[in-house]
Design goal:
The complex is a heterodimer of chains A (263) and B (324). Chain A has helices spanning 36-51, 70-78, 97-109, 130-138, 191-196, 218-221, 246-259; strands spanning 2-7, 9-11, 18-19, 26-27, 32-34, 58-64, 83-87, 115-119, 142-152, 155-162, 165-172, 175-179, 202-205, 224-230, 239-242. Chain A is of the alpha/beta class and 263 residues long. Chain A has one domain: 3-Layer(aba) Sandwich (Rossmann fold), CATH 3.40.50. In chain A, the strands form three sheets. A nine-stranded mixed beta sheet of chain A has the order 11-10-9-12-8-1-6-7-13, with helices on both faces. In chain A, strands 2-5 form a two-stranded antiparallel ribbon. In chain A, helix 3 (97-109) crosses helix 4 (130-138). The longest helix of chain A is centred in the first third of the chain and has 16 residues, at 36-51. Chain A is globular and about 65 Å long. Chain B folds into two domains: 4-183, 3-Layer(aba) Sandwich (Rossmann fold), CATH 3.40.50; 205-323, TPP-binding domain (Rossmann fold, 3-Layer(aba) Sandwich). Chain B is built from eight helices and 18 strands. The chains are: A alpha/beta (263), B alpha/beta (324). The interface between A and B is large, with 80 and 96 residues.
């Protein structure tokens, strides 16, 4: 089995995110990291590989993004991926979800994976949707927000929480599965793995290398234009108490509740 | 003139409230752009004439009924793509929910349409729909304009269901051939309830626990406080998935939506998926040791500190106050 894991570089959670007023796009400068949700996808791939229910020949990390995305790929490799593929091209900048999914699907096609895994959302764009777009282009079955994967008789048995409770779904391979953070506890990479990550093979592809039609990507190729960024209606800021003396804090909470007749 | 097609989820003979909200919203918008709102229902014999036609009460004039497996996204993508292909709808609209995200994204890819998710408001500009969506942890609003067809996926509870007095909708059966991908996933079990059934929706006071409680036993602190306050205990998805607390108490995207007089969040970071299920609460108190937790952005009283220290003392203080 060949598993591809889609990963993405996102601004570090500690960095304040903002929109670049000149381009109308998210300012993705500043400290970057591997999208935390993607570490669960890599861990899921590693657990399938190490679980032994099915032989896994290769785990490949795939990312689309600017040059700096190489760091996210190195991180993915340090967590266990065997090699990585980096789709990077000026023409891809400004792609919407549908265009990004198309570009990733074209990149994945070259690898013919049996399973594509990804995190259910990214820390910056909050999309739950990229997996479904990729699956549609690859004509593969797809499921998102999966919290348990078992490999049985060459099929996947997936569990997830949906609108009315927990669903169990049997999915034939090849398939695209996005995982939730409850699926596992990602491992920490060893120092040796971190040091070795840069030596693992990394393929850099341009849009034309991947067979991507220029008219379908970038801001021009995107079917939705986002703009008119504005502030939401301001909610009055709440009161904040830093707990130093717990007895005092509790007294403050109790009188706050009393004032609102909640006791 | 442009028509809007709305996906209506159903389960055990009942239509989903968020889907009906999307129908109400679709009917309103269709009126503004000079079109009609139609609905799609996918399922088996449980989609009776009566059930399908009842969507008309929320403003849909026509319902397309498709035989197919319900609860999975890709068969619905096939159904909606077929209906849109035959009838030329310009927009597809979804209420909040996990399936809406999956179907909407797949449909946008199939149709080459623009897609926007987590939409909280839809307006009309120059006869076209424009979707507003909060981004960056709800600190900004972004507006989506569609170059051609648009797929709009609402945030949970963004659209309120209102009976329009429109009466029964026309029901049209549509034959759809499923795509290969739609036949390769099959539901083994749907809607399994994990943990005991607890009613939290009627409670005036909720003490909700998240990962910050540290372990399943940490919920005892929340239970003690809830008992003292005369309320019930709720939970986040993370702790429900981890098996710490029953699914029936879960707040948010794939759980319950509540609006109690007091919502006390203990060890909850306040991710959007949780926020959408409780933001209408009258008073929100948050206790969290991480001062950067998003929940402090929308709580009325925030306490930065250690739950293990604060909760037991708060429980005692509440008991003393109530007893005295």
């Amino acid at each position: 089995m060949k598993i591809c894991v889609l990963v993405k570089e996102v601004p570090d959670a500690a960095v304040e995110k903002r929109i670049d007023a000149s381009t109308g796009r998210m300012d993705r400068s500043g400290e970057k990291n591997l999208n935390p949700f993607d570490t669960h996808a890599i861990e899921a791939a590693m657990q399938i590989k190490e679980g032994g229910d099915v032989p896994v020949e290769e785990v490949i990390a795939v990312s689309m993004g600017p040059e700096s995305a190489v760091r996210a790929l190195h991180k993915a490799v340090s967590l266990g991926a065997d090699r990585s593929v980096h789709l990077t091209d000026e023409s891809l900048a400004g792609s919407d979800v549908a265009a990004t999914g198309y570009a990733l699907a074209k990149t994945l096609e070259r690898e013919s994976p049996d399973l594509v895994l990804l995190g259910q959302q990214s820390d910056d764009g909050e999309c739950y949707t990229i997996g479904a777009v990729v699956a549609e282009h690859l004509a593969m079955p797809s499921l998102t927000q999966v919290i348990k994967i078992d490999v049985e008789d060459g099929k996947l048995r997936c569990e997830r929480q949906a609108e009315y409770g927990y669903d169990t779904v049997a999915v034939e391979l090849p398939a695209v599965i996005s995982v939730g953070d409850a699926i596992n506890e990602p491992r920490y990479p060893s120092l040796k793995a971190i040091m070795g990550a840069k030596k693992k093979p990394l393929d850099a592809l341009s849009a034309s290398d991947a067979g991507i039609e220029g008219s379908k990507v970038g801001a021009e190729g995107s079917m939705v234009a986002c703009g008119d960024f504005h502030d939401p209606p301001q909610k009055e800021a709440g009161q904040i108490i830093e707990d130093e003396d717990t007895n005092e804090t509790v007294e403050k909470i109790v009188s706050w509740l009393e004032e609102r007749k909640l006791l | 003139m442009a028509d809007i097609l709305v996906y209506v989820l159903h389960y055990e003979g009942e239509l989903n409230k968020n889907s009906l909200g999307a129908v109400t919203e679709g009917a309103r918008l269709a009126g503004e752009i000079g079109g009609e709102a139609h609905a799609v229902l996918v399922g088996g014999d449980d989609v009776t004439d009566e059930l399908a036609a009842s969507v008309g009460n929320y403003g849909a004039t026509k319902v397309f009924r498709v035989k197919g497996p319900e609860g999975l996204a890709q068969p619905v993508v096939d159904a909606m793509a077929k209906v849109i292909g035959d009838n030329g709808h310009t927009y597809a609209l979804f209420g909040g929910g996990l399936l809406g995200f999956e179907i909407g994204a797949g449909l946008a890819a199939r149709l080459g349409a623009g897609v926007t998710m987590e939409v909280t408001e839809v307006g009309v500009e120059d006869g076209k729909l424009v979707a507003s969506r909060p981004i960056l942890q709800d600190s900004k609003i972004s507006k989506s304009h569609y170059k051609d067809k648009g797929v709009i996926i609402g945030r949970l509870n963004a659209f309120e269901a209102k009976e329009s007095g429109g009466g029964a909708a026309t029901v049209e059966d549509v034959e759809v051939e499923l795509s290969p991908q739609a036949t390769k996933a099959t539901m083994v079990e749907r809607g399994e309830q994990r943990g005991e059934e607890i009613d939290i929706e009627g409670a005036d006071i909720l003490v909700a626990g998240g990962r910050g409680l540290g372990k399943a036993e940490g919920f005892e602190l929340a239970e003690d406080l809830a008992k003292a306050l005369g309320g019930a205990v709720a939970a986040t998805r993370a702790v429900v998935d981890a098996g710490w607390y029953p699914y029936s108490t879960q707040i948010g995207q794939t759980g319950k939506t509540v609006a109690p007089k007091l919502y006390l969040a203990a060890g909850i970071s306040g991710a959007i998926q949780h926020k959408v299920g409780m933001q209408a609460s009258e008073n929100i108190v948050a206790i969290n040791k991480d001062s950067n937790a998003p929940i402090f952005e929308f709580s009325d009283l925030g306490i930065i500190g250690d739950l293990n220290k604060i909760l037991p003392k708060l429980t005692e203080a509440v008991k003393a106050k109530k007893g005295g």
